[in-house]
């Protein structure tokens, strides 16, 4: 299945109550994560301003510090949002994938793969690694903004796509098999990750990224010729 078709099928299912329930919960948590990142970054900027020498103190410095701190906090929150979404998506993989399979792949057997704890752990570990990489890239972005942004985009696209796909795949197979299937569809998975990173930079749309990304990853998994779901395809779907 093409990446475009997988994304379109995911968007078309937004009318499904079974998908909307995790969608609203994921959107609320994504908004809370962004707000928390913004607050932490803003507090950090405020502490830096408070540590300025006394001879720099004054209303002008306070105003400049608040304005610059707000801007830096917004940029830093956006910079760290993708790792937060990667970790967040793992919490909603089961209900989202189940809703997609129920509508588009009703002939599939019950999902028997890695345990739920293993799925959650894999997503959280990947999110933590991605967070560490993004933090490490901040100095590069400050010195060489273009290079830092390009590296962050490349790392984020790879990790986001891999995280979504493997989390969904682990519902039906073990971690080694999920990684092998992800490598087999590496270009589609990388494309999904790139779209997710771009969408994460768009206000409001970024709140839908976890659920839409998981739904599209489910279609890629079952639309692949090497998977059990791929033999049937979404032909049995309602309204697909």
UniProtKB/TrEMBL annotation:
InterPro entries per the UniProt record, alphabetical: CysZ/EI24 (IPR059112)
Main location: membrane
Membrane topology: Multi-pass membrane protein
Domain of life: Bacteria
Pfam families for this protein: EI24 (PF07264)
TM regions (residue ranges): 24-42, 63-82, 136-165, 186-205
Keyword annotations from UniProtKB, A to Z: Membrane, Transmembrane, Transmembrane helix
Subcellular location field: Membrane
Protein's name according to its UniProt entry: Cysteine biosynthesis protein CysZ
């Amino acid at each position: 299945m093409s990446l475009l078709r997988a994304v379109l099928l995911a968007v078309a299912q937004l009318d499904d109550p079974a998908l909307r329930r995790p969608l609203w919960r994921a959107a609320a948590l994504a908004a809370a994560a962004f707000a928390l990142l913004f607050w932490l970054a803003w507090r950090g900027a405020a502490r830096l301003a408070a540590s300025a020498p006394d001879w720099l103190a004054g209303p002008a410095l306070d105003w400049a510090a608040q304005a610059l701190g707000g801007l830096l906090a917004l940029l830093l929150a956006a910079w760290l949002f993708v790792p937060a979404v990667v970790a967040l998506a793992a919490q909603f993989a089961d209900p989202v994938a189940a809703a997609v399979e129920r509508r588009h792949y009703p002939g599939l057997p019950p999902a028997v793969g890695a345990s739920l704890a293993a799925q959650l752990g894999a997503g959280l570990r990947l999110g933590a690694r991605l967070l560490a990489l993004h933090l490490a890239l901040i100095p590069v972005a400050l010195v060489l903004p273009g290079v830092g942004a390009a590296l962050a985009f490349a790392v984020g696209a790879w990790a986001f796509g891999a995280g979504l796909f493997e989390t969904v795949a682990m519902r039906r197979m073990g971690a080694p098999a999920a990684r092998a299937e992800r490598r087999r569809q590496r270009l589609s998975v990388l494309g999904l990750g790139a779209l997710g990173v771009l969408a994460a930079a768009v206000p409001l749309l970024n709140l839908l990224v976890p659920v839409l990304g998981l739904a599209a990853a489910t279609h890629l998994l079952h639309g692949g010729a090497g998977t059990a779901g791929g033999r049937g395809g979404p032909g049995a779907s309602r309204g697909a």
